[in-house]
Give the backbone structure.
Amino acid sequence: MSNDEDDVEWPREVAERNQRLLTVVSGSSDAEENTVDIIDPNDIVGVNVEIELASTGISEPRSLTSSLNRNDDSNQNNEPVSEIPVDTQANAILSLFVYPKPNLSTKGYIQTFCGAERNKTKNSNKAITFLEDKDRRQDCSDASKSSKCIGQRYCHHRRFTVAPSEDLTDLSILVNAIRKLSQPNKLPATSLDEEERLLVIVNPCSGQKMGVSEYEKMLLPMLEEAGVAHDCLITTHTKHAEERMRKQCTPSDFKDVSKYTGIVVVGGDGTIHEIMQGIHQRDDRDKILESIKLGMIGAGTSNGFSASLAHASKESMSPLDSAFVIVKGMSSWIDLSRYDTKSSSYTSFLTFSWAMIADIDIESECIRWAGFLRMDIWGVVRVLFLRKYRAKFSYLPPTEDKKTVILPPLSTPLSENEGWVTVEDDFVLFWVSQVTHAGEQMFQSPSCKMNDGVFQIFVVRGNVSRLRLALILLAMEHGGHVGMNGVEFIQCSAYRLEPITQGSYNDLDGEVIESGPIQASVLPSSIQAYSNPQYD
Ligand SMILES: Nc1ncnc2c1ncn2[C@@H]1O[C@H](COP(=O)(O)OP(=O)(O)OP(=O)(O)O)[C@@H](O)[C@H]1O
């Protein structure tokens, strides 16, 4: 069997479907082979090998556990480091950490053979025979049945005993091949500086206060299975995450954020907002945004960012699914935006709202105990006591080149000659999105793409009736409001909003910021997020 994928003779249907599955067979090469398992390498997050001496009959692994993971720089070939004499036979227990989706398609596969019959099957080149350890597999299946199936993916780890062999070369090749198949885009780190290391920021107070347990029970084991190194910060106070983004000046400080591959939040959108503002205050913010990846395990009240990433990736919205995408290292560029108020500036990743949605979001803080229902409850109040706000609204329609628009100061009038469109009207709802979801139950901007370089502005003007408004809000959970009478979507690459009627809030990513006039421009594809977009 060759390490080089190009040398593998793929069955024709595999090449056609570009689909690669591992088939595990039991029995030796001269006995009849039974397919005992089919595993999609895309579902594997890590591989582990334990070695035990066959002749000793010792069931406990002897001093040798080789974690054949992604960043094992000390062992470039991923060969298990053996202390076993060459002439001693050993059993290898191969663990595959697998998180599949149900309904695995079985069309097309790689048959992978290895092991004791190596010499006999050498001519067949790709030669490794598994002896399945039925007891262990049974144990594992039972465990997976009892394991909590969260979201679409579920934990279904496998353990197999590989046939005894005189040396571990074939096993090493097999493990290396599985690793390569499960991480097709992963380049090996060339130095310790480049080693993948995540900063995990856990907010213990987000949402239902499940952040720490989500981290300990779900993310931490998966990171260990995948061999992804990380540091963890459990926030102790408001703005702690923002403070952590500040430049670390002395070697005795914590590691500077620029040294991490990614930042993963176990919490809500407010924690990411803090991280963005912390980075925004740094001189080297563009460099950091360019080099770091952002991920989120939704443990907050709304979790709009993780819902949007899951939607773009066609994964289900659950902590386990989000952790899977992060641990696999899948990422893609997404847009951010820059906001200016009279005296401040911000980097935004989610939404801006003014008028009704801002009122609901901010005023419902007093019924936070109601969880995500607080938005529904306050929505009813706001429909009954309908408010309209007058504003001057200017926007710049998007252009093909997707360039960042450099905005003049807020006090400078915008010119029609430069393409700006200006209207003055009464608004009931004014909601700017760069993502599809502002919360798990808020599919407010279905046509948003995470990196299309445009704002989608969802507007409802002042002439809407209460009934129609209620229907619009009810339909929004599933995106049914698109196309309804009274709903408008305006696309633009930059805009300015100058409220004439006072009283509403400027709500950026779910947080209140300075009120009054505000303007923003899209920062196209300016950070990578852990996601796997599957746009049609
Ligand atoms: N240890 C802590 N004690 C009190 N507050 C904290 C602590 N750590 C962080 N915070 C604050 O908690 C606030 C809310 O956090 P977060 O946004 O993650 O949760 P959420 O509001 O429930 O979720 P969402 O924003 O998705 O609705 C943040 O603004 C943050 O400043």
Summary: The chain has three domains: 5-182, 192-334, 345-524. Residues 211-226 form the longest helix (16 residues). Confidence is low (pLDDT under 50) at residues 1-18, 57-84, 104-150.
